[in-house]
Design brief:
about 375 residues, alpha/beta, Rossmann fold, seven-stranded parallel β-sheet, 13 strands
Length: about 375
């Protein structure tokens, strides 16, 4: 039988709820609970805010000691067999680790991808992680970068590579129409430097100069790099005529709208952690142009079949734009193929994988006895 699991995290995230619901819906699974001991990520828009009405085990922000006591009390009531920490710092996580040691629960870690940092910072972070992971039995690693970082910190064979896991039902429900219109590009995410926007905007400007009227661009993003885009558009008024925005969202599902009206996702980032928009675009029937710096693209995109993996230099981006503009029917056919790849990373698929991991962990003899 699948053990009861509890994930303790400090950021309200729709994705962790979607995966938890998918795990709990599996036959024979007694429950996968999420304990939120924190608030919303400040850099995210209002549409990221969870509807917590009717949900159990969600705790809004408060004093640190209140979070600590709430985590302990909630875990004691749930009696989990596995406690999973969605982070390695903070009172809530320390309370979860302490509870697991005292109760003899298996201790897991939900590992998000870490962003690249200068060598001294990376070295110090690895020292902190090594200390924080003491006694951890298993790691659920989101993407290959996380897997490389966390797998040395748990017993051999107890680290597992997972995609993020998303409810992509509404993306799959988008009906693609046969079209002879110009190719419609989309950038979705945040307008920040890590997404290589200097080269992307420059390549779009050059492509418009070569093929005016052959494409349009939707920006579904906000951020400090808007200033750079504004400068490019002022210098190229023609490009400004084909650039539009779709980024005012009220609820979580509003973010799907730009995917329904686009053919190609542009995501040539230098690094992007997992890259949530890649599976979203593929599930919506779009091909993807992404760099190898995007974890989801490395896992999902088969070059020439459902997308293109490119370098981050301006010539690489421009060449990909030209190819899409010149091959619209092929582009739209690749979008159809992309939908099949996206099925591997749905919340349902990831939920099944987590159930098998939890069942395996229940037979793991390396878990310690309760502290006396």
């Amino acid at each position: 039988m699948t053990p009861v699991a509890a994930l303790v995290t400090t950021v309200l995230s729709p994705f962790q709820v979607e995966v938890a619901d998918a795990v709990s819906s599996q036959p024979g699974c007694p429950g996968f609970h999420v304990l939120f001991a924190g608030g919303y990520a400040s850099e995210r828009g209002h549409h990221w805010r969870l509807d917590i009405e009717g949900r159990h085990y969600i705790h809004m922000p408060g004093p640190q000691d209140r979070s600590r006591d709430w985590v302990r009390a909630t875990l004691a009531r749930l009696k989990p067999d596995v406690v999973i920490c969605g982070g390695y710092r903070g009172e809530a996580v320390r309370a979860a680790r302490s509870f697991a040691r005292q109760a003899g629960c298996r201790l897991g870690f939900w590992g998000e991808p870490l962003f690249p940092r200068p060598w001294p910072v990376s070295w110090a972070r690895r020292r902190v992680l090594a200390h924080a992971f003491r006694g951890t039995d298993l790691a659920l690693c989101i993407g290959d970068r996380a897997y490389r970082e966390y797998s040395p910190l748990v017993p051999v064979g107890n680290s597992f590579l997972l995609p993020y896991g998303q409810d992509l039902t509404r993306h799959f429900a988008i009906e693609r129409q046969v079209s002879s219109d110009p190719i419609r590009f989309l950038f979705s995410g945040r307008l920040v430097r890590q997404h290589n926007l200097r080269h992307l905007f420059s390549a779009l400007s050059a492509a418009f100069g070569e093929r005016p009227g052959a494409f349009s661009v939707t920006i579904a993003a906000k951020g400090p790099e808007q200033r750079r885009l504004d400068r490019v558009l002022r210098a190229n008024p023609g490009l400004a005529s084909v650039v539009g925005y779709d980024r005012e969202y009220t609820n979580w599902d509003d973010r799907i709208r730009p995917f329904a009206n686009s053919d190609v996702l542009l995501y040539p980032s230098r690094h992007a952690g997992w890259g949530l928009v890649v599976p979203e675009a593929m599930a919506a029937g779009m091909m993807v142009i992404a760099s190898a710096g995007v974890g989801a693209a490395r896992m999902l995109v088969t070059p020439g079949i459902d997308g293109l993996l490119i370098g981050t230099r301006r010539p690489d981006v421009l060449a990909a734009l030209r190819w899409c503009i010149d091959n619209p029917s092929v582009v739209r056919g690749m979008g159809t193929t992309a939908r099949e790849a996206a099925r591997r990373v749905t919340a349902s698929a990831v939920g099944k994988t987590i159930v098998s991991i939890l069942e395996r962990s229940s037979d793991d003899p390396r878990c310690g006895e309760p502290e006396r």
